[in-house]
């Protein structure tokens, strides 16, 4: 799904962008713009009265696509439109390549071609022409000419190998091993220089190249060179990273004089006599950054046979673990980390400061949790959440983006996400043998994905009979892990959970429509599979599916990284649906354990003030529940035991997180769970990994001395500012499996299938969740109607129904969606076999709910009517605390500035107790001559506090007869049309 095909095809050839880049460098500029295409999948039959545009099509923002304009010095080209920015850029580059008539060599250049090209590149770098242009290499060239004494004009080969993109990529083409062993590149460049012995000199065992003939004087005096005589001293703030882990990383500052060469000064700091013996790593962090490691070339010898540079075995002892881990290249001996160099943009030396803080941030950014922490700007307080609930409640980088960052940081290939659509069979043959599920793949998926999925057939069909309950439990254990983690369930968890599962008999198997499943693969740069995660769960939304799978991988990697006990990660392999290749994994991450948590072991025992939460301020009664989005103000300080002044480490005025997901350290989450809005709290905890503390504060010297001189602890101050209640939907999903909304729909579907109804009207159909699900089952229905006052929802319903009806051969002969209020008469809604009204009445004022009852049973008179509404008493369970009675709520409501915290959804005007609901329904039934029975979903009728959603099923008393005062509006008595048809289906059209 990631357009792997495209990437694969490109892997072995030079991309058009690369061709343009080698020709134009920064003179080529790409401008990508988003193209919003109106969606093409219009929905015939849809008409919105009041909108006068004929042939009105749904104003839907299609998935965005991109177009790219490539501007070159002489002309510009515009790409076609693409889903991905990078594809648009490549297309633009291709158009430019075509226009320029460049024929990129097919496939890889041969070894000879690459070697020859390297020779000509080196020759060009030392030409009269090159030193005059603006290029990072020419900056170095000019600076080497200013070197003193014997060193004047000696150009370090390592600069070419590391900083000249063209030369270094040619070296990689000669031998891909250059990627991991950059010193190999030195030998290729030396070899190339030796072919130019007429003009260049590079004696054996020397790591420099010198131009034999001096540059003509007029070139050196050209304006470009004069300008580069920067009048001021440049101070570089860098870091010294000793090879010995026991020695601390320390700041190191040095000045570069206008007349000096910075390489000489770094060499001096590393006690190397000649800057040419200095090696340079690839850039660390951002690709555009000049942050690199400088270190002495290890003792080397020229292997005569291959004339390649090899590192003596003895050097292996002095590997610099921290530097190697940071760069992903083998680095030996002491190193200096500096962001200094010549760039494309200026003739002057460009410098960025590197502090110890930035060093620790670079380190923790290599761990999945660290990348998340940084993205939240809360390295001490935030933790990688255990579950992805909804995109709206997620804060910080999304799991998928963190995983991409992680792979980039570790120089792995971009992770691949393969989503597939799981078509879940309707359970119309419940008693038959379990059916295999069809797994479908989206059209653009690769062969490979198909192969993977054909082996993963899933059987979710229900088994009937007594084995059922246990079956459901098993599937809960498999799929419910994240749900369990993210809900801080009330004490009676097991009882409740069992109860809700025992009612979900039909529901679990009767999953309707199609869901997504996602498989994530982590590959090494060499395309070896390191890890695969194939979650068994499927999701309605593709994004949820991808993010959840990415998060599983991240959680697993995090355990692997930080707990250092691989067994722990391995034991969670099952629950996180992960398989991995231990050998490759070890190869890629072998240094992690020597880096992360290294300092943890040196930390002194902490004192005893730990974790007494002192809460202050009056209890406002507004407390968070699992799934609430809370907003806090907090600060964390480092407190030394000896009474010295504390040091602020981290703070935020507004920090939001979702309760119950583990998005912050557990102490904080536990503290906040006990607080109400307006209260503040203070508590002390032990010191976390020292790496995190050093990544939080920029006063390294002070923090370090505090940490080293005293036992310390962390002091947290937190104030709960605001709570956003979980959306009803989120809450229902967190507590019930299947989600309560689905259980309601399934309940209604079950009743409909038991009946012989041929016509159905869904009052307050919303986005059509019930109508849509109905189409997945064999029913006797021929005519279905939905009514709602939300046109937005109706449009969504229309689209879903339209696409479903167009695909399926169903018994439905007519389907209509009306925009209208269900408390107004409309003769077209009369005389249906079945009426449904799920979770609608609580959205109206109580009087209107009574009015609806009278209209529907008195005038529309369906043979059966199913009404569901929340059971207020059940909110105790959903809240995990005792619910205040309704009168107290009323007070609170005014206190909280009109914000209601008592109902499951902000739009609810009321929620009834069982008694209130039964009274409403019974009176109605008697009045209009119906029978009524009560039921529900979620929870159980005989365990307090009853069902989560209460349901009344009204049935017309046989024989149907007219009650005085009840007047079904029939065509005979005049047609009343108050609703507007929004969409209409009929199969012949
Ligand atoms: N029955 C749907 C939607 C429930 S949400 C489901 O179970 O998914 C409640 C719906 O009632 C909303 O779509 C809202 O627009 C609708 N509604 C509220 N008052 C209404 C009224 N007076 N007439 C028609 N629909 C109404
Ligand atoms: Mg509702």
Q: Spans of 5+ residues with little confidence (pLDDT < 50)?
A: 1-12, 49-60, 301-308, 425-512, 601-609, 881-901
Query: Roughly what percent helix?
Result: 25-40%
* Spatial arrangement of strands, main beta sheet: 30-31-29-28-25-26-27-32
**Average predicted local confidence, pLDDT:** 78
Number of strands: 32
What does the main sheet amount to? 8 strands, mixed
Distance between the ends:
34 Å
Whole-angstrom Rg: 35 Å
Q: What fraction of the residues are assigned to beta strands by DSSP?
A: 15-25%
Which class of secondary structure composition applies to the elements?
alpha+beta
Bound molecules: S-adenosyl-L-homocysteine, magnesium ion
Shape from CA axes?
Answer: elongated
Task: Output the number of helix runs.
Answer: 35
Domain PPIase FKBP-type: 624-685
Organism: Trapa natans (Water chestnut)
Domain dsRNA binding: 23-101
Enzyme class: transferase
Overall description:
With 989 residues, the protein is an alpha+beta fold. The protein is 34% helix and 20% strand. Strands 30-31-29-28-25-26-27-32 form an eight-stranded mixed sheet, with helices on both faces. The radius of gyration is 35 Å and the shape is elongated. The two termini are 34 Å apart.
Present the secondary structure layout:
Layout: H1 4-11, H2 16-24, E1 29-35, E2 65-71, E3 76-78, H3 85-100, H4 111-125, H5 136-145, E4 155-156, H6 157-163, H7 165-174, H8 183-194, E5 200-201, E6 208-211, H9 217-220, H10 223-227, E7 234-241, E8 250-256, H11 262-269, E9 278-280, E10 291-296, E11 300-302, E12 309-311, H12 321-327, E13 335-342, E14 349-352, H13 356-364, H14 368-376, H15 399-409, E15 416-423, E16 438-440, H16 447-454, H17 468-479, H18 481-486, H19 493-502, H20 505-509, E17 514-523, E18 529-533, H21 542-562, H22 566-571, E19 578-580, H23 582-589, H24 592-595, E20 614-616, E21 629-640, E22 647-658, H25 666-673, E23 680-685, H26 690-694, H27 700-709, E24 712-724, H28 728-735, H29 740-754, E25 759-763, H30 769-774, E26 783-788, H31 791-807, E27 814-819, E28 834-838, H32 846-860, E29 864-870, H33 875-879, H34 886-895, H35 914-928, E30 930-939, E31 947-956, E32 980-985
Parallel strand pairs: 25-26, 25-28, 26-27, 28-29
Antiparallel strand pairs: 1-2, 2-3, 4-6, 5-6, 7-8, 7-13, 9-10, 10-13, 11-12, 13-14, 15-16, 15-17, 17-18, 18-19, 20-23, 21-22, 21-24, 23-24, 27-32, 29-31, 30-31
Helix pairs in contact: 2-3, 4-7, 4-8, 6-7, 6-8, 7-8, 15-21, 32-35
The structure holds S-adenosyl-L-homocysteine (SAH) and magnesium ion (MG).
């Amino acid at each position: 799904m990631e357009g792997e095909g495209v990437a694969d095809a490109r892997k072995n050839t030079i991309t058009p962008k690369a061709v343009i880049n080698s020709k134009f460098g920064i003179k080529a500029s790409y401008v990508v713009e988003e193209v919003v295409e109106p969606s093409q999948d219009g929905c015939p039959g849809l008409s919105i009265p009041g909108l006068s545009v004929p042939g009105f099509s749904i104003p839907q923002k299609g998935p965005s696509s991109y177009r790219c304009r490539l501007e070159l010095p002489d002309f510009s080209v515009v790409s076609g439109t693409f889903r991905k920015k990078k594809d648009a850029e490549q297309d633009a580059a291709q158009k430019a390549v075509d226009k320029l008539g460049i024929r990129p060599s097919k496939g890889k250049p041969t070894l000879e071609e690459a070697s020859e090209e390297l020779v000509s590149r080196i020759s060009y770098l030392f030409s009269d022409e090159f030193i005059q242009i603006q290029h990072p290499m020419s900056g170095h060239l000019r600076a080497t000419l200013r070197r003193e004494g014997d060193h004047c004009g000696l150009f370090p080969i390592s600069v070419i190998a590391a900083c000249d993109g063209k030369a270094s990529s040619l070296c990689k083409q000669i031998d891909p091993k250059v990627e991991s062993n950059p010193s190999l590149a030195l030998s290729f460049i030396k070899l190339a220089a030796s072919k130019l012995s007429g003009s260049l000199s590079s004696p054996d065992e020397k790591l420099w190249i010198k131009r034999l003939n001096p540059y003509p004087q007029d070139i050196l005096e050209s304006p470009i060179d004069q300008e580069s005589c920067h009048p001021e001293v440049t101070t570089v703030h860098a870091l010294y990273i000793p090879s010995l882990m026991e020695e601390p990383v320390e700041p190191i500052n040095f000045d570069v004089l206008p007349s000096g060469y910075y390489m000489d000064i770094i060499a001096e700091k590393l006690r190397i006599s000649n800057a040419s013996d200095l090696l340079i790593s690839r850039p660390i962090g951002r690709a555009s950054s000049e942050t690199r490691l400088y270190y002495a070339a290890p003792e080397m010898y020229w292997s005569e046979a291959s004339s390649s540079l090899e590192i003596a075995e003895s050097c292996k002892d002095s590997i610099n673990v921290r530097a190697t881990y940071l760069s992903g290249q083998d680095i030996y001996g002491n190193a200096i980390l500096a962001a200094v160099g010549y760039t494309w943009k200026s003739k002057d030396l460009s410098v960025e400061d590197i502090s110890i803080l930035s060093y620790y941030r670079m380190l923790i950014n290599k761990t999945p949790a660290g990348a998340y922490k940084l993205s939240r700007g809360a390295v001490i307080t935030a933790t990688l959440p255990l579950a992805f609930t909804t995109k709206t409640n997620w804060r910080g980088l999304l799991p998928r983006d963190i995983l991409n960052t992680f792979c980039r940081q570790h120089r792995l290939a971009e992770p691949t996400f393969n989503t597939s659509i799981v078509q879940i069979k309707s359970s119309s043959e419940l008693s038959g043998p379990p059916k295999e599920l069809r797994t479908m793949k989206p059209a653009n998926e690769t062969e490979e994905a198909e192969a993977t999925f054909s082996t993963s057939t899933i059987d979710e069909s229900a088994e009937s009979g007594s084995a059922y309950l246990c079956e459901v439990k098993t599937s809960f254990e498999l799929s419910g892990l994240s749900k369990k983690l993210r809900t801080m369930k009330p004490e009676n968890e097991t009882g409740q959970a069992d109860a809700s599962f025992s009612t979900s008999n039909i529901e679990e198997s009767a999953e309707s429509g199609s869901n997504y499943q996602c498989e994530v693969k982590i590959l090494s740069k060499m395309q070896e599979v390191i890890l695969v995660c194939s979650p068994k769960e499927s999701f309605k939304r593709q994004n949820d599916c991808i993010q959840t799978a990415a998060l599983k991988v991240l959680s697993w990697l995090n355990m692997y990284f930080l707990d250092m006990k691989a067994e722990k990660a391995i034991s969670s392999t099952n629950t996180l649906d992960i398989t991995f290749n231990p050998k490759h994994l070890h190869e890629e991450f072998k240094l992690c354990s020597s880096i992360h948590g290294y300092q943890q072991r040196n930390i002194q025992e902490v004192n005893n003030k730990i974790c007494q939460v002192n809460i202050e301020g009056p209890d406002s009664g507004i407390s968070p529940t699992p799934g609430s989005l809370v907003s806090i103000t907090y600060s964390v300080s480092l407190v030394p035991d000896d009474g010295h002044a504390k040091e602020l480490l981290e703070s935020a005025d507004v920090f939001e997180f979702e309760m119950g997901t583990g998005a912050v350290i557990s102490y904080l989450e536990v503290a906040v769970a006990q607080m109400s809005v307006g209260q503040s709290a203070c508590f002390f905890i032990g010191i976390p990994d020292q790496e995190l503390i050093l990544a939080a504060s920029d006063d390294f010297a002070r923090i370090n001395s505090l940490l080293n001189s005293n036992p310390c602890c962390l002091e947290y101050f937190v104030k709960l500012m605001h709570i956003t209640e979980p959306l009803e939907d989120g809450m229902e999903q967190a507590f019930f499996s299947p989600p309560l909304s689905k259980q309601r729909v399934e309940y209604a579907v079950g009743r409909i299938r038991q009946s012989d109804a041929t016509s159905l009207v869904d009052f307050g159909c919303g986005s059509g969740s019930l109508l849509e699900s109905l189409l997945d089952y064999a029913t006797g229905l021929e005519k279905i109607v939905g009514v709602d006052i939300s046109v937005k929802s109706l449009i969504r319903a229309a689209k879903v129904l339209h696409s479903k009806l167009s695909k399926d051969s169903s018994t439905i002969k007519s389907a209509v969606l009306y925009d209208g209020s269900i408390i107004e008469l409309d003769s077209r809604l009369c005389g249906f076999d079945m009426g449904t009204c799920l979770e609608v009445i609580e959205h109206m004022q109580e009087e209107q709910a009574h009015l609806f009852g009278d209209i529907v049973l008195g005038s529309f008179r369906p043979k059966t009517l199913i009404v569901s509404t929340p059971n207020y008493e059940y909110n105790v369970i959903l809240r995990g605390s005792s619910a205040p009675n309704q009168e107290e709520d009323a007070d609170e409501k005014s206190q909280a500035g009109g914000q209601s915290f008592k109902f499951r959804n902000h739009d609810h005007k009321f929620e009834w107790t069982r008694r209130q609901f039964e009274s409403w329904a019974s009176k109605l039934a008697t009045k209009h001559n119906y029978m009524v029975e009560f039921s529900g979903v979620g929870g159980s009728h005989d365990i307090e506090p009853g069902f989560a959603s209460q349901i009344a099923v009204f049935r017309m008393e046989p024989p149907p007869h007219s009650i005085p005062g009840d007047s079904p509006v029939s065509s005979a008595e005049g047609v009343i049309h108050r609703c507007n048809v929004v969409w209409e289906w009929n199969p012949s059209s």
